[in-house]
Specification:
Chains A, B: One of its GO terms (molecular function) is L-tryptophan decarboxylase activity. Chains A, B: InterPro entries: Aromatic_deC, PyrdxlP-dep_de-COase, PyrdxlP-dep_Trfase, PyrdxlP-dep_Trfase_major, PyrdxlP-dep_Trfase_small, Pyridoxal-P_BS. The structure is a homodimer. Chain A is of the alpha/beta class and about 450 residues long. The first copy, chain A, has three domains: about 90 residues, no CATH class; about 230 residues, Type I PLP-dependent aspartate aminotransferase-like (Major domain) (Aspartate Aminotransferase, domain 2); about 80 residues, Aspartate Aminotransferase, domain 1 (Alpha-Beta Complex). In chain A, about 45% of the residues lie in helices and about 10% in strands. Chain A is built from 14 helices and eleven strands. In chain A, strand 1 and strand 2 form a beta hairpin. The longest helix of chain A has about 35 residues. The termini of chain A are far apart. Chains A and B meet through helix 1, helix 2, helix 4, helix 5 and strand 10 of A and helix 1, helix 2, helix 4, helix 5 and strand 10 of B.
Chain lengths: ~450, ~450
């Protein structure tokens, strides 16, 4: 195996800085990986056809120091189709190991670790994580109350929840009428209120419906709200509802001690997911899902046709990931995640997240220091305020100098500056803010002229 | 853009031979791609943030000549998240173009082309293609008969159909009791018989159930059966059933004129899929799905939250692929398929498939030439025959000289030698056959001793 030494962090004005896509380091390592794979193809006939290993062979052997892109190259180069353990013991065991590592980094309770009876799997997307957990509890519930009651099942979330939940609910065959996005308010920081949840559940029960699933979010897309996991799980538990915690973009940040409290209460949930492909230095697709009760997934999703019979599966000592996900075939996604974890380690990954949080705070500081932009009162009334922001965003994006997006939160049109991209630095924030200032000032002039 | 000339085909004893993974060519092109991407990262700030193009900008510009691995490297290197047109016009338009190209290569009727009102999309797996088409027709049907009838919907297929259909039916919330794998027989070459289908439908209607979906297969996994598409579509049409044609591994071969007849009758189907990642020189994941009526998909799968509002979508002139698939985010999979098509062209792709078919015929010829292996009568009775084959397979795989699998077809235990791998040549078939002969002879000796 190639031994790639990493050399892509620098000291700069603001302290230690990880440069995960330094172009010269990328070039050096990329060429080494190409040679590694070319040698592999050249000598492919010397490798055995059949896995020669026993379950649990891998934990004692893992090490390495190369990252995401190289992981994807290996994934493509090997083209492993690891639907079950026997098809690729390495792909299966590496994934289980990496998911336990990550669970430890996030301080997830041991009930989510393989070693504690739970376990993790890498899905393609949060949609898949939603769909599979919805299917798991739907089948469990219907086996008790009868399939004819499928149209009585209810799914809860807040009105800030990502719309992919609604899509997954649709695909799972649950009635769109029984999808309950509960209203949140600015005074509650757009968090889902446990008492509102309880009220919704009681009303549904009175109407003869069956509460099934609750999605709590750590870091909503539009409003960055963090739902209070502990109290929400308490309510859900009373009514036998499956709780999924979706921390799609924010989850990765919880490896930092100062942000871990956002996950407080996750011990009461049934499943938890975050997307390493968002803020964790991996590329699409890499959604990490943990469940406390893998049998809920495998009971609903397993298929064991004759053609896949094998002694490893019969031994019940191995994980067959095809029964933890939607499809049967699966890419060896654990490779890239493993390489990211090995290459950077928890300290550098924390530095990376903390660096972005500093950039976000810097942009907040810039905004607060601008008298005009900091006070909405420069715009005559609320309606004009939204109109102003809409025009401002269009003007900024049309300039080509930056690309920003918007959200409507509590009726207010908000412009977003996302600072989670790998290449982002202070100078980019400064440049983006200058752009906002210039376009806002130009627009304000036209406003006051009218 | 890099200009990579291809140089990986050779003349050999059996004529022209494409070597899609020649290690030295891989090395040369891989290094060029690394430099291309390193230069891209080095100069990333000179590129505009925002797409500057109008819908349909791409058809006039496509060209290139590099293949799958390089496509995956580009896909990872750019990490495009093209859920809708505006997020990545290039990813969207290239996918539409490539799917129309492929539709033409397969001579699919124009009703499956974008230009004919249909269209194609790249999914991760056949499971996803099943699930999305099932969801499409399920929602359409329930909007007519009412959601409370979900447990009455019936899905038909043959007992040879790939088990991923059963899994998709489970996930879609359709009752497992209403999954109808219709029995096939050896005398029918394991094809699904149209009259058996009709009988099953009539029985279900009499029981008050609702026929919904039929899956026909071109090339079943265990028995390589090809269902008679025309007559099956005729029966389905009478009862308003959605017909999906699954040609997972065999579909690619239908670009050859001599195999195209396997798709005869596909014009009566509603959707068609094949996996380019099986026998079409791309790696996981690349399932190509075409539908005649994209609105059936988009009506069931679309989500249009405020945050994704954009003028392109509002114009209704663009494809938003998030509404054609399970998840929202999607990898730029079209790149690798586009590079494969451009690099090899239809002639070389046909040569590639035809080369494998010749290898399969060669192994058939070797088998027929062996008096013992060619006549099952050397084994006392049917039961022993299955037992013999089971022991033979175990002995072959344990030797490490080859990796074969098995299927039970019509009660008979069959050993498979799959010859679709990229590196397969005549010498591998000869070696594998010698291995089978040696192990069979050794095993026969122990049999006759008892």
């Amino acid at each position: 195996m190639v031994d790639l030494k990493l050399n892509h962090s620098v000291q700069n004005g603001s302290g230690f800085m990880l440069i995960p896509l330094d172009h010269e380091e990328f070039r050096r390592q990329g060429h080494m990986m190409i040679d590694f794979l070319a040698d592999y193809y050249q000598n492919i006939e010397i490798y055995p056809f059949h896995s020669q290993v026993e379950p649990d062979y891998l934990p004692a052997r893992s090490n390495g120091s190369i990252a995401n892109f190289l992981g994807e190259m290996l994934c493509t180069g090997f083209n492993t189709v690891g639907f079950n353990w026997i098809a690729s013991p390495a792909a299966t065991e590496l994934e289980s190991i990496v998911m336990d590592w990550l669970a430890k980094m996030l301080k997830l309770p041991s009930s989510f670790h393989f070693s504690g009876g739970g376990g993790g799997v890498i899905h393609a997307s949060t949609c898949e994580a939603f769909l599979c957990t919805l299917t798991a509890i739907r089948e469990k519930k219907l086996s008790v109350i009868g399939r004819e009651n499928l149209d009585k099942l209810v799914v809860y979330c807040s009105d800030q929840t990502h719309f992919s939940l609604k899509k997954s609910v649709q695909i799972a065959g649950i009635s769109p009428e029984n999808f309950r996005p509960i209203v949140t308010t600015k005074s509650d920081s757009f968090q889902l209120c446990p008492e509102s949840l309880r009220l919704a559940i009681i009303l549904d029960l009175e109407a003869g419906l069956v509460p099934l699933y609750l999605c709590c979010t750590v870091g909503t897309t539009s409003s960055t709200a963090v739902d209070p996991l502990g109290p929400l799980c308490d309510v859900a538990k009373e009514y036998g509802i499956w709780v999924h915690v979706d921390a799609a973009y924010a989850g990765g940040a919880c490896i930092c001690p100062e942000f871990r409290h956002f996950l407080d209460g996750v011990e009461g949930a049934n499943s938890f997911s975050f997307n390493a492909h968002k803020w964790f230095l991996t590329t699409l697709d890499c959604c990490c899902l943990w469940v406390k009760d893998p049998s809920a997934l495998t009971n609903a999703l397993s298929t064991n046709p004759e053609i896949l019979n094998n002694k490893a599966t019969e031994s019940k000592q191995v994980v067959d990931y095809k029964d933890w996900q939607m499809a049967l075939s699966r890419r060896f996604r654990a490779l890239k995640l493993w390489l990211v974890l090995c290459s950077y380690g928890i300290t550098r990954l924390r530095d990376f997240v903390q660096g972005h949080v500093k950039l976000a705070k810097h942009s907040e500081w810039l905004l607060a220091g601008d008298k005009k932009l900091g006070s909405p009162s420069v715009i005559p009334n609320d309606e004009d305020f939204n109109e102003f922001n809409r025009n401002l965003l269009e003007s900024i994006n049309a300039s080509g100098g930056a690309r920003m997006v918007y959200a409507v939160v509590g009726g207010v049109y908000v412009i977003w500056l996302a600072v989670g991209a790998t290449f982002f630095e202070y100078r980019h924030v400064n440049k983006a803010f200058k752009l906002v200032q210039d376009h806002a000032n130009a627009l304000l002039c036209t406003y006051w002229k009218h």
